[in-house]
Design a protein that fits this description.
By secondary structure, this protein is of the alpha+beta class. The protein has one domain: STM4215-like (2-Layer Sandwich). It is 24% helix and 42% strand. Strand 2 (30-42) and strand 3 form a beta hairpin. The longest helix is centred in the middle third of the chain and has 18 residues, at 64-81.
């Protein structure tokens, strides 16, 4: 199992719909998992590495108050799903997708792993 799949599984356990790649057509609400920058760097222990990911949370279209509450709930679920790997969360932004604007935020996570692929 890859690290993206592990992240997706944890998010799905919290009730979020996920994609481990950038889908051709984004259908909110969704959590899209992609590499962050830097993607991989040395860990704190010899032989350990740190993989960084961004989880783009995109709320569904609704009234401003409903969309804001939905995004806040998505952020809470993402942090709850990955507390030991959580780094930060951006402030909400408007994301333009499919000729429409959606409220979104990026949650950054970092996961230690070794060359055997274990986390």
């Amino acid at each position: 199992m890859g690290l993206r799949t592990e992240i997706a599984g944890a998010l799905e356990d919290e009730g979020l719909v996920t994609a481990t790649y950038l889908p051709e057509r984004v259908t909110p609400p969704i959590a899209i998992i992609s590499p962050s920058d830097p993607y991989v760097e040395n860990g704190q222990v010899y032989g350990e590495y740190l993989a960084s990911f961004e989880v783009l949370l995109v709320a569904g279209k609704a009234s401003n108050i409903v969309e804001t509450d939905a995004l806040d709930t998505m952020i809470e679920k993402a942090i709850s799903a990955l507390p030991q790997f959580f780094d930060s969360c951006s402030s909400p932004i408007l994301l333009e997708v499919n000729n429409a604007q959606f409220l979104s935020a990026q949650v950054k996570v970092s996961i230690p792993f070794d060359m055997s692929g274990g986390s």
